[in-house]
Design a protein that fits this description.
alpha+beta; Cytochrome p450; binds protoporphyrin IX containing FE; transmembrane helix; heme binding; transmembrane; Alkane hydroxylase MAH1; Cyt_P450
Length: 405
Protein backbone atom coordinates (compact mmCIF):
# COMPACT_ATOMS: atom_id res chain seq x y z
CA UNK A 1 0.00 0.00 0.00
CA UNK A 2 2.91 2.31 0.91
CA UNK A 3 4.44 2.06 -2.55
CA UNK A 4 1.13 3.15 -4.12
CA UNK A 5 1.09 6.21 -1.86
CA UNK A 6 4.69 7.08 -2.91
CA UNK A 7 3.84 6.61 -6.58
CA UNK A 8 0.84 8.91 -6.15
CA UNK A 9 2.89 11.67 -4.44
CA UNK A 10 5.62 11.30 -7.11
CA UNK A 11 3.01 11.79 -9.77
CA UNK A 12 1.60 14.86 -8.02
CA UNK A 13 5.13 16.32 -7.75
CA UNK A 14 5.84 15.55 -11.39
CA UNK A 15 2.93 17.62 -12.66
CA UNK A 16 4.33 21.07 -11.66
CA UNK A 17 7.76 20.04 -13.02
CA UNK A 18 6.23 19.04 -16.35
CA UNK A 19 4.17 22.25 -16.41
CA UNK A 20 7.36 24.24 -15.74
CA UNK A 21 9.20 22.44 -18.58
CA UNK A 22 6.25 23.07 -20.87
CA UNK A 23 6.32 26.76 -19.90
CA UNK A 24 10.10 26.88 -20.60
CA UNK A 25 9.63 25.12 -23.94
CA UNK A 26 6.90 27.48 -25.11
CA UNK A 27 8.29 30.73 -23.75
CA UNK A 28 12.03 30.35 -24.21
CA UNK A 29 12.70 27.64 -26.73
CA UNK A 30 10.34 26.98 -29.59
CA UNK A 31 10.10 29.85 -32.12
CA UNK A 32 12.21 32.14 -29.96
CA UNK A 33 15.73 33.45 -30.59
CA UNK A 34 18.28 31.07 -29.03
CA UNK A 35 18.77 31.27 -25.28
CA UNK A 36 22.31 30.66 -24.00
CA UNK A 37 21.87 28.32 -21.01
CA UNK A 38 24.77 27.44 -18.69
CA UNK A 39 26.71 24.29 -19.73
CA UNK A 40 24.36 23.22 -22.58
CA UNK A 41 24.53 26.59 -24.33
CA UNK A 42 21.98 27.12 -27.09
CA UNK A 43 21.60 23.43 -27.92
CA UNK A 44 18.11 23.10 -26.29
CA UNK A 45 16.90 26.00 -28.46
CA UNK A 46 18.35 24.36 -31.56
CA UNK A 47 16.80 20.97 -30.79
CA UNK A 48 13.41 22.53 -30.02
CA UNK A 49 13.45 24.27 -33.40
CA UNK A 50 15.17 21.70 -35.55
CA UNK A 51 11.97 20.93 -37.50
CA UNK A 52 11.68 24.58 -38.58
CA UNK A 53 15.42 25.24 -38.57
CA UNK A 54 15.58 27.71 -41.48
CA UNK A 55 12.59 29.80 -40.35
CA UNK A 56 13.98 29.89 -36.84
CA UNK A 57 17.43 31.06 -37.95
CA UNK A 58 15.94 33.59 -40.39
CA UNK A 59 13.71 35.00 -37.63
CA UNK A 60 16.61 35.12 -35.19
CA UNK A 61 18.56 37.12 -37.78
CA UNK A 62 15.75 39.64 -38.24
CA UNK A 63 17.05 41.81 -35.38
CA UNK A 64 20.43 42.77 -36.81
CA UNK A 65 21.34 40.11 -39.35
CA UNK A 66 24.03 38.45 -37.20
CA UNK A 67 24.00 35.76 -34.55
CA UNK A 68 26.63 33.99 -32.49
CA UNK A 69 25.51 30.44 -31.78
CA UNK A 70 27.17 28.63 -28.89
CA UNK A 71 26.65 24.92 -28.31
CA UNK A 72 27.41 23.00 -25.10
CA UNK A 73 30.75 23.65 -23.41
CA UNK A 74 33.66 21.86 -25.13
CA UNK A 75 31.39 20.57 -27.93
CA UNK A 76 33.18 22.70 -30.54
CA UNK A 77 29.78 24.03 -31.70
CA UNK A 78 30.64 27.66 -32.29
CA UNK A 79 28.81 29.16 -35.22
CA UNK A 80 28.34 32.66 -36.48
CA UNK A 81 25.29 33.20 -38.67
CA UNK A 82 25.04 36.25 -40.84
CA UNK A 83 22.71 37.56 -43.48
CA UNK A 84 24.35 40.97 -43.68
CA UNK A 85 25.26 41.61 -47.36
CA UNK A 86 28.48 43.41 -46.37
CA UNK A 87 29.64 40.37 -44.38
CA UNK A 88 28.68 37.99 -47.17
CA UNK A 89 30.65 40.09 -49.66
CA UNK A 90 33.65 40.18 -47.32
CA UNK A 91 33.64 36.39 -46.78
CA UNK A 92 33.04 35.47 -50.42
CA UNK A 93 35.34 37.96 -52.12
CA UNK A 94 37.43 40.39 -50.06
CA UNK A 95 38.90 37.83 -47.65
CA UNK A 96 37.95 34.63 -49.53
CA UNK A 97 41.26 32.85 -48.69
CA UNK A 98 40.46 33.04 -44.99
CA UNK A 99 37.19 31.15 -45.38
CA UNK A 100 37.69 27.67 -46.83
CA UNK A 101 35.05 24.98 -46.42
CA UNK A 102 37.20 23.47 -43.68
CA UNK A 103 37.67 20.07 -42.03
CA UNK A 104 34.33 19.97 -40.16
CA UNK A 105 32.45 20.50 -43.40
CA UNK A 106 34.39 17.78 -45.17
CA UNK A 107 33.62 15.33 -42.36
CA UNK A 108 29.92 16.14 -42.43
CA UNK A 109 29.65 15.85 -46.22
CA UNK A 110 32.10 12.93 -46.55
CA UNK A 111 29.61 10.94 -48.65
CA UNK A 112 30.30 13.40 -51.50
CA UNK A 113 33.98 12.38 -51.47
CA UNK A 114 36.36 14.81 -53.18
CA UNK A 115 33.77 16.47 -55.44
CA UNK A 116 33.71 20.26 -55.87
CA UNK A 117 31.54 20.84 -52.78
CA UNK A 118 34.16 19.20 -50.59
CA UNK A 119 37.34 20.80 -51.86
CA UNK A 120 39.25 24.03 -51.44
CA UNK A 121 42.27 25.60 -53.12
CA UNK A 122 43.72 24.15 -56.34
CA UNK A 123 41.43 21.12 -56.52
CA UNK A 124 38.34 23.34 -56.16
CA UNK A 125 39.67 25.78 -58.81
CA UNK A 126 40.45 22.90 -61.20
CA UNK A 127 37.01 21.31 -60.79
CA UNK A 128 35.23 24.64 -61.11
CA UNK A 129 37.05 25.39 -64.36
CA UNK A 130 36.23 21.94 -65.76
CA UNK A 131 32.58 22.15 -64.72
CA UNK A 132 32.21 25.58 -66.28
CA UNK A 133 33.78 24.28 -69.46
CA UNK A 134 31.51 21.23 -69.59
CA UNK A 135 28.37 23.20 -68.82
CA UNK A 136 29.11 25.92 -71.37
CA UNK A 137 29.51 23.48 -74.28
CA UNK A 138 26.80 23.80 -76.88
CA UNK A 139 26.20 20.05 -76.96
CA UNK A 140 25.62 20.00 -73.19
CA UNK A 141 23.24 22.97 -73.28
CA UNK A 142 21.25 21.38 -76.08
CA UNK A 143 21.19 18.17 -74.07
CA UNK A 144 19.80 20.03 -71.01
CA UNK A 145 17.05 21.60 -73.15
CA UNK A 146 16.15 18.25 -74.75
CA UNK A 147 16.14 16.36 -71.43
CA UNK A 148 13.92 18.99 -69.82
CA UNK A 149 11.49 19.04 -72.74
CA UNK A 150 11.30 15.21 -72.90
CA UNK A 151 10.62 14.86 -69.20
CA UNK A 152 8.00 17.61 -69.12
CA UNK A 153 6.19 16.34 -72.22
CA UNK A 154 6.42 12.62 -71.60
CA UNK A 155 6.30 12.37 -67.82
CA UNK A 156 5.12 15.47 -65.94
CA UNK A 157 2.30 16.71 -68.18
CA UNK A 158 0.77 13.24 -68.76
CA UNK A 159 0.89 12.69 -65.00
CA UNK A 160 -0.90 15.99 -64.33
CA UNK A 161 -3.43 15.23 -67.05
CA UNK A 162 -4.27 11.87 -65.50
CA UNK A 163 -4.48 13.43 -62.05
CA UNK A 164 -7.04 15.97 -63.26
CA UNK A 165 -8.96 13.30 -65.18
CA UNK A 166 -9.31 11.13 -62.06
CA UNK A 167 -9.80 14.12 -59.77
CA UNK A 168 -6.90 12.97 -57.54
CA UNK A 169 -4.92 14.94 -54.98
CA UNK A 170 -1.15 14.81 -55.45
CA UNK A 171 1.91 15.96 -53.54
CA UNK A 172 3.36 18.55 -55.88
CA UNK A 173 6.66 18.69 -54.00
CA UNK A 174 7.08 14.95 -54.48
CA UNK A 175 6.37 15.37 -58.23
CA UNK A 176 9.02 18.06 -58.57
CA UNK A 177 11.47 16.06 -56.54
CA UNK A 178 10.98 13.06 -58.85
CA UNK A 179 11.20 15.26 -61.93
CA UNK A 180 14.45 16.91 -60.88
CA UNK A 181 15.93 13.61 -59.69
CA UNK A 182 15.33 11.94 -63.06
CA UNK A 183 16.66 14.99 -64.92
CA UNK A 184 19.76 15.27 -62.73
CA UNK A 185 20.58 11.57 -63.22
CA UNK A 186 20.25 11.90 -66.99
CA UNK A 187 22.40 15.03 -67.09
CA UNK A 188 25.02 13.55 -64.77
CA UNK A 189 25.45 10.05 -66.20
CA UNK A 190 22.78 9.45 -68.81
CA UNK A 191 20.61 7.03 -66.79
CA UNK A 192 16.92 7.73 -66.31
CA UNK A 193 15.78 6.09 -63.05
CA UNK A 194 12.15 6.73 -64.07
CA UNK A 195 10.99 7.88 -60.64
CA UNK A 196 8.38 10.15 -62.26
CA UNK A 197 6.19 7.44 -63.75
CA UNK A 198 2.45 6.91 -63.46
CA UNK A 199 2.82 4.36 -60.62
CA UNK A 200 5.27 6.60 -58.67
CA UNK A 201 7.78 3.80 -57.96
CA UNK A 202 10.15 3.80 -55.01
CA UNK A 203 13.58 3.97 -56.66
CA UNK A 204 16.22 2.53 -54.28
CA UNK A 205 18.89 4.92 -55.58
CA UNK A 206 16.55 7.91 -55.04
CA UNK A 207 15.67 6.68 -51.54
CA UNK A 208 19.38 6.27 -50.77
CA UNK A 209 20.14 9.88 -51.86
CA UNK A 210 17.25 11.09 -49.63
CA UNK A 211 18.54 9.08 -46.66
CA UNK A 212 22.03 10.47 -47.16
CA UNK A 213 20.68 14.06 -47.28
CA UNK A 214 18.68 13.50 -44.06
CA UNK A 215 21.78 12.10 -42.32
CA UNK A 216 23.85 15.09 -43.46
CA UNK A 217 21.26 17.50 -42.02
CA UNK A 218 21.32 15.49 -38.79
CA UNK A 219 25.10 15.92 -38.65
CA UNK A 220 24.89 19.66 -39.34
CA UNK A 221 22.36 20.31 -36.59
CA UNK A 222 23.91 18.26 -33.74
CA UNK A 223 27.24 18.39 -31.88
CA UNK A 224 29.79 16.24 -33.75
CA UNK A 225 30.08 13.90 -30.78
CA UNK A 226 26.38 12.88 -31.24
CA UNK A 227 26.66 11.66 -34.78
CA UNK A 228 30.15 10.24 -34.30
CA UNK A 229 28.80 8.11 -31.48
CA UNK A 230 25.90 6.93 -33.67
CA UNK A 231 28.42 6.14 -36.40
CA UNK A 232 30.62 4.21 -34.00
CA UNK A 233 27.63 2.21 -32.74
CA UNK A 234 26.23 1.83 -36.26
CA UNK A 235 22.72 2.97 -35.30
CA UNK A 236 20.11 5.63 -36.18
CA UNK A 237 20.77 8.08 -39.01
CA UNK A 238 24.35 6.84 -39.35
CA UNK A 239 23.18 3.29 -39.97
CA UNK A 240 20.86 4.60 -42.71
CA UNK A 241 23.71 6.64 -44.17
CA UNK A 242 26.05 3.63 -44.30
CA UNK A 243 23.38 1.57 -46.08
CA UNK A 244 22.56 4.44 -48.44
CA UNK A 245 26.22 4.78 -49.33
CA UNK A 246 26.41 1.19 -50.50
CA UNK A 247 23.39 1.68 -52.81
CA UNK A 248 24.70 5.02 -54.14
CA UNK A 249 28.21 3.70 -54.80
CA UNK A 250 26.94 0.60 -56.57
CA UNK A 251 24.48 2.50 -58.77
CA UNK A 252 27.05 5.07 -59.88
CA UNK A 253 29.83 2.49 -60.30
CA UNK A 254 27.60 0.57 -62.72
CA UNK A 255 26.79 3.75 -64.69
CA UNK A 256 30.52 4.59 -64.96
CA UNK A 257 31.53 1.08 -66.01
CA UNK A 258 28.74 0.98 -68.61
CA UNK A 259 29.80 4.33 -70.07
CA UNK A 260 33.51 3.42 -70.18
CA UNK A 261 32.59 0.19 -71.94
CA UNK A 262 30.39 2.00 -74.50
CA UNK A 263 33.16 4.50 -75.21
CA UNK A 264 35.75 1.74 -75.64
CA UNK A 265 33.43 0.09 -78.14
CA UNK A 266 33.22 3.40 -80.01
CA UNK A 267 29.45 3.63 -79.50
CA UNK A 268 27.60 6.94 -79.65
CA UNK A 269 27.04 8.07 -76.05
CA UNK A 270 24.92 10.73 -74.28
CA UNK A 271 26.62 14.13 -74.12
CA UNK A 272 26.20 14.16 -70.30
CA UNK A 273 28.70 15.29 -67.67
CA UNK A 274 30.27 11.85 -67.36
CA UNK A 275 31.02 11.65 -71.09
CA UNK A 276 32.37 15.17 -71.09
CA UNK A 277 34.76 14.27 -68.21
CA UNK A 278 35.82 10.99 -69.84
CA UNK A 279 36.61 12.85 -73.05
CA UNK A 280 38.82 15.38 -71.26
CA UNK A 281 42.37 14.06 -70.93
CA UNK A 282 43.24 16.50 -68.11
CA UNK A 283 40.59 14.97 -65.86
CA UNK A 284 41.55 11.89 -63.81
CA UNK A 285 39.44 9.02 -65.09
CA UNK A 286 39.63 6.98 -61.89
CA UNK A 287 36.23 5.61 -60.93
CA UNK A 288 36.55 7.31 -57.54
CA UNK A 289 37.00 10.83 -58.91
CA UNK A 290 34.24 10.32 -61.48
CA UNK A 291 31.88 9.00 -58.79
CA UNK A 292 32.53 12.02 -56.55
CA UNK A 293 32.07 14.45 -59.44
CA UNK A 294 28.83 13.06 -60.85
CA UNK A 295 27.31 12.51 -57.40
CA UNK A 296 28.08 16.11 -56.43
CA UNK A 297 26.61 17.39 -59.69
CA UNK A 298 23.50 15.29 -59.20
CA UNK A 299 22.96 16.51 -55.62
CA UNK A 300 23.62 20.12 -56.59
CA UNK A 301 20.96 20.09 -59.28
CA UNK A 302 18.34 17.89 -57.72
CA UNK A 303 17.01 19.50 -54.54
CA UNK A 304 17.65 23.05 -55.72
CA UNK A 305 15.37 22.68 -58.73
CA UNK A 306 12.62 20.84 -56.87
CA UNK A 307 12.71 23.22 -53.92
CA UNK A 308 12.64 26.29 -56.23
CA UNK A 309 9.66 24.93 -58.19
CA UNK A 310 7.73 23.78 -55.10
CA UNK A 311 8.02 27.14 -53.36
CA UNK A 312 7.14 29.01 -56.53
CA UNK A 313 3.88 27.09 -56.97
CA UNK A 314 3.11 27.36 -53.28
CA UNK A 315 3.64 31.15 -53.47
CA UNK A 316 1.35 31.27 -56.54
CA UNK A 317 -1.35 29.37 -54.67
CA UNK A 318 -1.26 32.17 -52.08
CA UNK A 319 -1.35 34.96 -54.69
CA UNK A 320 -4.19 34.48 -57.13
CA UNK A 321 -3.63 37.90 -58.71
CA UNK A 322 -0.01 37.00 -59.54
CA UNK A 323 -1.14 33.71 -61.03
CA UNK A 324 -3.65 35.51 -63.27
CA UNK A 325 -1.03 38.06 -64.34
CA UNK A 326 1.39 35.27 -65.29
CA UNK A 327 -1.28 33.39 -67.24
CA UNK A 328 -2.17 36.61 -69.10
CA UNK A 329 1.50 37.20 -69.95
CA UNK A 330 1.93 33.56 -71.03
CA UNK A 331 -0.99 33.86 -73.45
CA UNK A 332 1.11 36.34 -75.45
CA UNK A 333 3.97 33.82 -75.89
CA UNK A 334 4.18 31.35 -78.77
CA UNK A 335 2.81 27.97 -77.75
CA UNK A 336 3.82 24.47 -78.85
CA UNK A 337 1.14 21.79 -78.88
CA UNK A 338 2.47 18.31 -78.07
CA UNK A 339 1.15 15.19 -79.90
CA UNK A 340 -1.04 14.57 -76.83
CA UNK A 341 -2.51 18.07 -77.03
CA UNK A 342 -0.49 19.62 -74.19
CA UNK A 343 0.86 23.16 -74.33
CA UNK A 344 4.57 23.84 -73.82
CA UNK A 345 6.79 26.89 -74.35
CA UNK A 346 10.30 27.35 -75.70
CA UNK A 347 12.82 28.73 -73.19
CA UNK A 348 13.66 31.63 -75.55
CA UNK A 349 9.99 32.66 -75.56
CA UNK A 350 9.84 32.66 -71.76
CA UNK A 351 12.96 34.79 -71.60
CA UNK A 352 10.90 37.78 -72.75
CA UNK A 353 8.22 37.43 -70.07
CA UNK A 354 9.30 40.12 -67.62
CA UNK A 355 6.54 39.65 -65.04
CA UNK A 356 6.87 35.86 -64.95
CA UNK A 357 10.64 36.03 -64.49
CA UNK A 358 10.35 38.67 -61.77
CA UNK A 359 7.78 36.55 -59.90
CA UNK A 360 10.06 33.51 -60.09
CA UNK A 361 13.09 35.50 -58.89
CA UNK A 362 11.06 36.90 -56.02
CA UNK A 363 10.09 33.39 -55.00
CA UNK A 364 13.78 32.33 -55.10
CA UNK A 365 14.66 35.36 -52.97
CA UNK A 366 11.99 34.64 -50.37
CA UNK A 367 12.53 30.87 -50.28
CA UNK A 368 16.15 30.26 -51.32
CA UNK A 369 16.82 26.62 -52.32
CA UNK A 370 20.27 26.91 -50.72
CA UNK A 371 19.55 28.86 -47.56
CA UNK A 372 22.83 28.14 -45.80
CA UNK A 373 26.45 28.19 -46.90
CA UNK A 374 29.14 27.00 -44.51
CA UNK A 375 32.62 28.46 -44.23
CA UNK A 376 35.41 27.76 -41.76
CA UNK A 377 37.54 30.55 -40.29
CA UNK A 378 41.31 30.17 -40.77
CA UNK A 379 42.54 33.27 -38.95
CA UNK A 380 40.74 35.68 -36.61
CA UNK A 381 38.97 38.35 -38.61
CA UNK A 382 36.72 41.37 -38.04
CA UNK A 383 33.70 41.54 -40.30
CA UNK A 384 32.43 44.81 -41.83
CA UNK A 385 29.54 44.75 -39.33
CA UNK A 386 32.10 44.82 -36.48
CA UNK A 387 31.70 41.19 -35.32
CA UNK A 388 34.86 39.22 -34.57
CA UNK A 389 35.34 35.69 -35.85
CA UNK A 390 38.01 33.48 -34.41
CA UNK A 391 39.90 30.45 -35.70
CA UNK A 392 37.94 27.23 -35.54
CA UNK A 393 34.50 28.85 -35.78
CA UNK A 394 32.09 28.04 -38.55
CA UNK A 395 30.53 31.02 -40.23
CA UNK A 396 27.16 30.38 -41.80
CA UNK A 397 25.73 32.62 -44.42
CA UNK A 398 21.97 32.63 -44.35
CA UNK A 399 20.28 33.80 -47.48
CA UNK A 400 16.81 35.29 -47.02
CA UNK A 401 18.12 38.60 -45.78
CA UNK A 402 21.50 38.46 -47.47
CA UNK A 403 19.77 38.85 -50.80
CA UNK A 404 17.26 41.35 -49.45
CA UNK A 405 18.25 44.10 -51.81
C1 LIG B 1 17.57 27.37 -58.11
C2 LIG B 1 18.60 26.62 -58.39
C3 LIG B 1 19.96 26.73 -57.74
C4 LIG B 1 20.40 27.51 -56.70
C5 LIG B 1 19.63 28.53 -55.89
C6 LIG B 1 21.80 27.20 -56.49
C7 LIG B 1 22.59 27.79 -55.51
C8 LIG B 1 23.92 27.48 -55.30
C9 LIG B 1 24.75 28.05 -54.25
C10 LIG B 1 24.31 29.09 -53.25
C11 LIG B 1 25.97 27.50 -54.35
C12 LIG B 1 27.19 27.78 -53.46
C13 LIG B 1 28.08 28.78 -54.13
C14 LIG B 1 29.41 28.94 -53.42
O1 LIG B 1 29.65 28.37 -52.36
O2 LIG B 1 30.25 29.67 -53.97
C15 LIG B 1 25.93 26.57 -55.46
C16 LIG B 1 27.00 25.82 -55.88
C17 LIG B 1 26.95 24.93 -56.91
N1 LIG B 1 25.85 24.62 -57.70
FE1 LIG B 1 24.04 25.46 -57.58
N2 LIG B 1 22.18 26.24 -57.38
C18 LIG B 1 21.09 25.92 -58.16
C19 LIG B 1 21.01 24.99 -59.17
C20 LIG B 1 22.08 24.24 -59.60
C21 LIG B 1 22.02 23.27 -60.66
C22 LIG B 1 20.77 22.96 -61.49
C23 LIG B 1 23.26 22.74 -60.79
C24 LIG B 1 23.79 21.69 -61.72
C25 LIG B 1 23.07 20.88 -62.41
C26 LIG B 1 24.11 23.37 -59.79
C27 LIG B 1 25.44 23.09 -59.58
C28 LIG B 1 26.22 23.68 -58.61
C29 LIG B 1 27.62 23.35 -58.42
C30 LIG B 1 28.43 22.33 -59.22
C31 LIG B 1 28.07 24.14 -57.36
C32 LIG B 1 29.49 24.18 -56.75
C33 LIG B 1 30.19 25.41 -57.28
C34 LIG B 1 31.46 25.74 -56.53
O3 LIG B 1 31.71 25.22 -55.43
O4 LIG B 1 32.17 26.58 -57.04
N3 LIG B 1 23.35 24.27 -59.09
N4 LIG B 1 24.67 26.57 -56.01
Amino acid sequence: MAWAWFAFTDLILCIPCLLFLYYLYNNFLVSHPPVNFPIVGMLPSLLANVQQFHDWIANSLLVNGNLYFRGPWFSGMEYFFTSDPANVHHIFTQNFQNYPKGGDFLEIFEVLGDGIFNTDGDSWRFQREKLQLAMSQKSFRTFIAKTTRDKIENALLPFFSQTVEHDRVIDLQDMFSRLSFDMSCILSFGTDPGSLSMDLPVVPFGRAVDDASAAIFYRVSRPAVFWKLLKFLGIGQEKKLAKARVVIDQFIAEAIEKRKHEMNEGKHVCPDLLSSYLNDEDIPNSNEFLRDSVLTFLTAGRDTISSGLSWFFWALSQNRQTEENILRELSSARQNITPKGMITFDPEELDNLVYFKAAFMESLRLFPPVPLNFKAVLKPDILPSGFTLWKGMLSNLHCPLAFDN
